[in-house]
Amino acid sequence: MDTEIRVGVYNNKKTHVRFLILFFVFIITAISYADRVALSIVGSDLIKEMNLDVATLGRIFSAFGIAYMLMQIPGGYLLDRYGSIKIYAYSLFFWSLFTFLHGFVIFAPAMYIVVSLALLQFLLGVAEAPAFPANTRIVATWFPTKERATAASIFNASQYFSLAVFSPLLSWVTYNFNWQYVFVVMGVIGFIFTLIWSRLVRNPLEHRSVSAAELSYIEQGGAMIHMDKPKVKNKSPSMSNIKKLITNRSMFGIFLSQYFLNTITWFFLVWFPIYLVQAKGFPVVKAGLVAAIPAIFGFSGGILGGVFSDFLLKKGFSLTVARKIPIVIGMLLAACIVLCNYTNNNTIIIILMALAFFGKGFGALGFPVITDTAPKEMVGLCAGIFNVFGNLAPVVTPLVIGTLVKETHSFNAALIYVSCSALMSMCCYLFIVKDIKRFEI
């Protein structure tokens, strides 16, 4: 093993620095999701104050998704070229800045407020684009294969944690102050964590607190600790390699499944609070509290799905079986969201939403699958392509659901759309993806 390692006094002890790194990844990812949903939290107030309709709000939401999708491959390339830690720090700073600026859009001329919001959402999408590919690379760098699904599920579960914690907080801020303060608060939080990240997070070969024992353990277990080794330069992304990734049957199935999975995610992120207010008559503050309930179940499902997958792997099941079983179970549970159309009991609706979000979290193993299958020299690029497919959903979903709600004056068709997306995500793994193994170029 290469020993150009900046270890401290812990050479003879097995440290657990990788879990500290995962903790920071978890928190930063939770902040990124809070910044994405902030506009949804204040959406009802914006509709009233600025005389918008849900279709216009859907177009503003989609501006984020368009930018986020377009920047996935460039973002993945930058990560492979310059390293996860540095690019993540820049990304966090700029998305916090654009979130902060949302709070001052009210000072724009009235005719330009919608354009200003859409532009800031677009810039937010540009800045956040490297986040999940960076998470994937960091987990691949710090965690052995047998811990990878759990680690990836933990950072992926931060989206549910974000909803559970920030939805009530931001709803309270909106109610007691004004919607502009939501963005100011989130921007300041992001600036603080930019400083923390820059000072405390490093790669395995550069971290002063990691021991030789831990480094040996993660490397022998399959962690790619040399991925961001200094002075190693990565080539520009090759179109032929991108084509090979997309045209490979299993890789394409993994990519496509993420699109359908993210449709569920974006219903809960963007439309669920509005659904509670407009369709079910909840006050804004109560809607924020109620929205936290499915998020808590989603968080639990997200953690348990990864733990269950790694448990199956340790019990001797193949990697393919260990990853696919939780996905199938989870998507079947997520499809239960359609049952909300057949009851007017708000308690039952919240229970069904919680079950659906639990299932979505349990089956959200796309990121560990990518770390299992991506070519070693292109993890960032592969994760970027994966996120391009996944983030067609934040472009399409707000437009489709906004149009369905506007035309039908009901969320029923929207819930059918989300349920079918869960089943399609499952079918991708059952009928398109074959064996889950490292793809070599």
TrEMBL record:
Residues 21-437 form the Major facilitator superfamily (MFS) profile domain. The chain crosses the membrane at residues 16-34, 54-75, 87-107, 113-132, 153-173, 179-198, 252-277, 289-313, 325-342, 348-367, 379-401, 413-432. It comes from the Bacteria. The keyword tRNA-binding does not apply. Its main location: membrane. It is a multi-pass membrane protein. Keywords: Cell membrane, Membrane, Transmembrane, Transmembrane helix. It is found in: Cell membrane. Belongs to the major facilitator superfamily. Phthalate permease family. This is MFS transporter. The lineage of its organism: Bacteria, Pseudomonadati, Pseudomonadota, Gammaproteobacteria, Enterobacterales.
